[in-house]
Amino acid sequence: MTTAVFFDLDLTVLQYTDDFETIFERALPNAPDGAYEQYVEGLLHAFDQLSTTPYRAGFEAVVGEFDVDAEPAELVSRYHEAELAATTVPDATHDAVTRVAAERPTGILTNGTLEMQQAKLEAHGLDEVADAIVVSNDPDVAARKPDSAIFRTAEESLPAANYVYVGDTYDEDIVGARNAGWEAFHVGTDGPEDAPERVASVEEAAKQILD
Known about the structure:
This protein is of the alpha/beta class and 211 residues long. It has helices at 20-27, 35-48, 54-65, 72-85, 91-103, 114-123, 148-157, 170-179, 202-210, and strands at 3-7, 15-16, 87-88, 106-110, 132-135, 162-167, 183-186. GO terms for molecular function: hydrolase activity. Its cofactor is Mg(2+).
């Protein structure tokens, strides 16, 4: 029976060299006190509403509240560039995903915007590895983890008898996948410490998947 494997992107396959507040400050140097918090509030609300432009919503909230000498579109462009520059995929992780993809139908299943997530995949050569890319705020998906609807969309993109998900966030990734009837591997540190889904790394998850 065919088993398809999906990986979460941010903080699972892909890591960051800087925190998000530092990335924000690169897009808006010398930001007023409270600007980052205002940005995050607007961003997350837009994400939850499945907006295709949540970064713009975040920066519109900042420009509307503070005296900032920049347009939201310019700030979004700067932020995208700064976030992309702060991403990295460890060689061992890249190799692990590539090994899985050589033997199983393999996809990326991630919350985020299609434009930003595709740019990250392309920057690290993962777009050529993945057979499918399922992104929450893509209008053709319009569902965010842990909603089972995003897992159903993934199943439609890669038909298989069984599905496995590898993610770092217990409630969104692991509980969401299990509720959708998938097997799951948890590479994060949240959730129950003795959970049977927990593994030390993507590489360990890949080894168990392929054994």
